# Entry
Amino acid sequence: MSMIEENRAQASAALPGPSLAGVEDFLALLKPRVMSLVVITALTSFVAAPAGLHPVLAAVALLCIAVGAGASGALNMWWDADIDAVMSRTANRPVPAGRVTPGEALAFGMTLSVGSVLMLGLTANWLAAGLLAFTIFFYVVVYTMWLKRWTPQNIVIGGLAGAMPPMVAWAAATGTVGLESAVLVALIFMWTPPHFWALCLIKSDDYARAGVPMLTITAGPDETRRQILLYSIALAPLGVAPAFVGLGGPLYLAVAIVVGLEFLRRAVKVYRVREGDAARKAAGGLFGFSLIHLFALFFVLIAEKLVGIAPLTGPVPGWM
Amino acid sequence: MAMVEPHDEDKGLVLTEEQLRRRKARNVAIAVALFVLVVLFYLVTVFKMGGNVANRPL
# Structure
């Protein structure tokens, strides 16, 4: 074998083979289910915000926020491929399954991150673009790279990233950060720990195998149940708060009270039922209902605006 | 990880049917994304200008 042929053979061996990634793999990198939550919460701000953008510009801005959220999901999957590979829930994700190379996921995530932030800045304003950039940075660097593998408070603090979309959208629509959007952020922020820890109670083995210091592993299931109950109690008043800052009307208040009480009832059940299948069922029930709870609250806020039900109170004056 | 097919001096790297199909799908997706981006920039430009086009000094 000549030296040229030898070098070529070595180069071929060092290169990854032709990509087997399909379009659906790149869509999976965007975490579509998380993206749907981002879309509904951001859409609520666009619908509820006073004055605001032209509907076409608002739609483009909403797309930017959704793509920014998807981009941070792709970067999360790039960094966490080693963890995802050993967890049953995530082992079939595109990177650990080998369908997308880490380099492809990184390039895809970075391109969409930069593109979505710049596009939002051009479409709406640079405050919104800055908040979107902060959200992506917080999710990828602060949560994924730092908190997730370091502290059991990972999803408490990291939950801020998932809670930010209503504020980004509010800033895009109004050019400022209102108390209304802060209340929505606080609502999602307080909702995240009981939602996620309920899942952890079911998938604790997965996280233990991956070495992720979730609360169920570091403090045990009983302490996790206590924390779920405490956060659920704190969540209850935040669920009805939008009705008192000029966002929600009487229908919202009624729905918020009903789903808030049901959330609390399920959290108490998780706290009390600690053994066997019944305990798993209670945790699974809380996890499933938490999704219904959040979607219901934001759907009602949108529906009230669309059918013209007035908020119970006017906007809070003099806040930012 | 996909294996690199043996080189043929004349043909170079030969892709399998599946690799060709997926590459074509990715190319189509990139083309669609670029087209959507063009439409978005057009719409954003038009709606940002709004009525200012009519109001400009002539």
